[in-house]
Amino acid sequence: MVYDWNTCPKDVKDYIMDLKEGIKNVVGRDFVGFYIHGSLAMGGFNPRSSDIDVLVVVNNSMEVEKKKILAQLFLQYSNSPYPLEISFLNRVDLLDWRHPCPFELHYSEAWRKRFENDLSNGSNLCINENKNTDIDLAAHITITHHRGLCIEGEPIDKVFPPIPKAHYISSIVADYRDCLKNITEDPIYCSLNIIRVYWYLSEGVISSKLEAGNWGKGKLQERLRSTVSKAVDNYTGQENHDFNEEELVSLRNYLLERVEEILN
């Protein structure tokens, strides 16, 4: 069973609202807004496997001490029970858009060990005053414009700039290339994401992974449809199919040929 913001269980909404209030307590007057993108905004949220994707916008650069307090909050909240992916963006950087976009602070489960090490060792390898960039933010902001939700704060179109198409493509193609390499290790995410990129490049549709999978079941070659159907079933939790390497490589190569043809 998958959900969007309007249909998701109460505990999902409570989790997000509590997280938002915790963030506001730390950020204080610099808080501009709290925005959801990704599967929960687009109707493909599976409580058993999906991330909760959040962008937070602030008015000024964040102090290291505040970042440490937020890091503790994220370590407490993420995976309890929903994994969190969140980026803090400075409004100044959004007004002066550049790609890749700078961020003030980022957390996902891939960063958990780095956050834990900084907090336990008193180091600043991850939690520091440096401003890093993330190529993925062009995609996150584009999706926020098209399908995202403002949970609290200023409206999306008043906060986020329009993202040039070339920057969006650069962002999704970077993820697509990772998926080409990792499809046998992470078949569900990578299969659906490669299809999503192909759908956008061929028809201009900004979609969720689930929407792309459902499209692929009807549009891709018949020999590939059973693989796509298995990915969709696993993503939604309807079934738990196994994949063999041959079918995944076949799907990857089919999409690789068509995507590269469009890009070139």
From TrEMBL:
<dbReference type="InterPro" id="IPR043519">
    <property type="entry name" value="NT_sf"/>
</dbReference>
<keyword id="KW-0046">Antibiotic resistance</keyword>
<protein>
    <recommendedName>
        <fullName>Spectinomycin 9-adenylyltransferase</fullName>
    </recommendedName>
</protein>
<keyword id="KW-0808">Transferase</keyword>
<dbReference type="InterPro" id="IPR025184">
    <property type="entry name" value="AadA_C"/>
</dbReference>
<dbReference type="Pfam" id="PF01909">
    <property type="entry name" value="NTP_transf_2"/>
</dbReference>
<keyword id="KW-0548">Nucleotidyltransferase</keyword>
<keyword id="KW-0547">Nucleotide-binding</keyword>
<keyword id="KW-0067">ATP-binding</keyword>
<dbReference type="InterPro" id="IPR024172">
    <property type="entry name" value="AadA/Aad9"/>
</dbReference>
<feature type="domain" description="Adenylyltransferase AadA C-terminal">
    <location>
        <begin position="158"/>
        <end position="257"/>
    </location>
</feature>
<feature type="domain" description="Polymerase nucleotidyl transferase">
    <location>
        <begin position="32"/>
        <end position="68"/>
    </location>
</feature>
<dbReference type="InterPro" id="IPR002934">
    <property type="entry name" value="Polymerase_NTP_transf_dom"/>
</dbReference>
<dbReference type="Pfam" id="PF13427">
    <property type="entry name" value="AadA_C"/>
</dbReference>
<dbReference type="GO" id="GO:0016779">
    <property type="term" value="F:nucleotidyltransferase activity"/>
</dbReference>
